[in-house]
Amino acid sequence: MKQRYTDLFETPSIIEVEYKGQSRYFEENLIHKTIRGELVRSKSEVIVANILNQLNVEYAYEEPLKVAGKTYLPDFTLRHQGRTAYLEHLGMLSKPSYQRSWERKEKNYEKVGISEAEDNLIITKDGLDGSLDAMEIEERIREWMDL
């Protein structure tokens, strides 16, 4: 499978990582490992991925999605019982530039019918103090699964 070496805001920095018994090259920001052995950008995304795995939800990490002429990388694309949803975990809302970027992305999602109101977007968040509630994340995913 072709690897992705991209970063949304800057030139990627590639590092060598021991991965599944082999030396592989990854974008430097993909340094956190999930229970399935996937490399993700943040510890919060590790927690989300592990919850999805525990709930037996089929998912892909940062699967490209074309929206309004742009290609986005939703944190997780979920598939369950013939339905698809996108899970975005917002981990840095205390940074104004991050919040503005998210607001633009959310507006573009809405233009193509991807929203919480349509039950095909799940938004989870770190607290402004960096806290994380795994039980709340699991509850949001379970609610979507039970639709």
Report what the structure shows:
This protein folds into 2 domains: 1-30, no CATH class; 42-145, 3-Layer(aba) Sandwich (Trna Endonuclease, Chain: A, domain 1). It has helices at 43-54, 96-111, 134-145, and strands spanning 14-19, 22-27, 32-33, 39-40, 58-61, 65-67, 70-72, 76-80, 83-90, 121-125. 27% of the residues lie in helices and 30% in strands. It has 147 residues and is of the alpha+beta class. Mean pLDDT is 87; it is low at 1-9. The radius of gyration is 15 Å and the shape is globular. Helix 1 (43-54) packs across helix 3 (134-145). Strand 8 (76-80) and strand 9 form a beta hairpin. A 4-stranded mixed β-sheet has the order 5-8-9-10, with helices on one face.
Keywords:
147 residues; alpha+beta; Trna Endonuclease, Chain: A, domain 1; 2 domains; 4-stranded mixed sheet; 10 strands; 30% strand; globular; disordered N terminus
